[in-house]
Amino acid sequence: MAEKSYSVAVAGATGLVGSQMLACLAERDFPIKSIKMLASARSAGRTIQFRGESFTVEELTEKSFKNVDIAFFSAGGAVSKKFAPIAAADGCVVIDNSKTWRMDPDIPLVVPEVNPHAVAGYSKKGIIANPNCSTIQMVVALAPIHRKAGIKRIVVSTYQAVSGTGKAAVDELMEQSRAILESQPIEKKVYPHQIAFNCLPHIGSFLETGYTDEEMKMVNETRKILEDDGIAVSPTTIRVPVFYGHSESVNVETVNPITPDEVRSVLEKAPGVKVVDNPSSNIYPLAVEAAGRDETFVGRIRKDTSVENGIDMWIVADNIRKGAATNAIQIGEILIRDYL
Ligand code: 3JN
């Protein structure tokens, strides 16, 4: 019998994440019967190449999801908020990349290497949430340590690539870098400050507590995915002049002792993780090497000598692939394998 195949839609098909979703669907041979490329009215009419065929981008409307089995959404929070429930009411399962539904207790928040069982919860509202990029790569690396030694507290600083903001920010870094090297004045359109040759301790919007909403995503989403509200998380999220690949300096304090060698050995067996850790040969994870890959790379694994049970490490992944598109398609793969 022929393999079952599905009607798929990609909402936000012309964006950075949407186009990567299409690339991942093709690369991973997702069984597709038909595909709709959806975007705003502004992008409607454009053509997109997919698996050697040309597709015309359609405007996303209330009627877009009739007879669609699975829709991958990456068109911004407002679109997700309005259209995910409409799609779900039409019997379509939505895998949503925005923050809109992530903390809804009736909507699963899934990282396939960590909590694949949670996909089952899709049936409540017909929506599955894809976590924030910085959270995904952190929990892929930390879940195996949590299972082995119990994580009590995480202190994390991120070094996030401009692609996390979107195409305009990628252009802004390129243009500012060129302008500065040519001693020309820079233009600031996306970020409040110069991003070229700079670091901005500011991602998202500031809350009354002094944290940003991006930082609070890491706190709340980590607890939901690891299914442990007792984990303390203190994040600082930083934008750096890197195009692709988020890096994270992560300190964890565990309940039970665990040595750096034990961490390496647990992570070497962990799904989706690649240990890159030979500092004496200058080998450690690098954003430029993680870009274009789907693994989460971990290195600089060492004992934090300032506490009894502490480990420090450096975690890097492609924010557009594992941090967004790949993770969403992997969720789709579990969905069709076990549920649809
Ligand atoms: O800036 C980054 O590197 C990640 C950006 C994430 C982001 C930016 C705007 C809106 C999100 C997200 O995925 O958490 C959202 C959102 O979901 O609403």
Q: Work out the helicity level.
A: 25-40%
User: Which residues form runs of ≥5 with pLDDT under 50?
Assistant: none
Global mean pLDDT: 98
Task: Estimate what percentage of residues fall within beta strands.
Answer: 15-25%
Using the CA coordinates, give the radius of gyration: 20 Å
Distinct bound molecules? ligand 3JN
Largest sheet: 6 strands, parallel
Number of helical segments with 4 or more residues: 9
Q: Structural class given helices, strands, pairing?
A: alpha/beta
What features would you describe in this structure?
The protein is of the alpha/beta class and 340 residues long. The protein is 31% helix and 24% strand. The chain has helices at 16-27, 77-89, 122-125, 133-149, 167-181, 213-225, 260-268, 287-290, 321-338; strands at 6-11, 32-39, 47-50, 53-56, 58-59, 70-73, 93-96, 127-129, 151-160, 232-239, 246-254, 273-275, 296-303, 310-317. The strands form three sheets. Strands 5-2-1-6-7-8 form a six-stranded parallel β-sheet, sandwiched between helices. It has a six-stranded mixed β-sheet with strand order 10-9-11-14-13-12. Strands 3-4 form a two-stranded antiparallel ribbon. Helix 4 (133-149) crosses helix 6 (213-225) and helix 4 (133-149) packs across helix 9. The site of ligand 3JN has 11 residues, from loops.
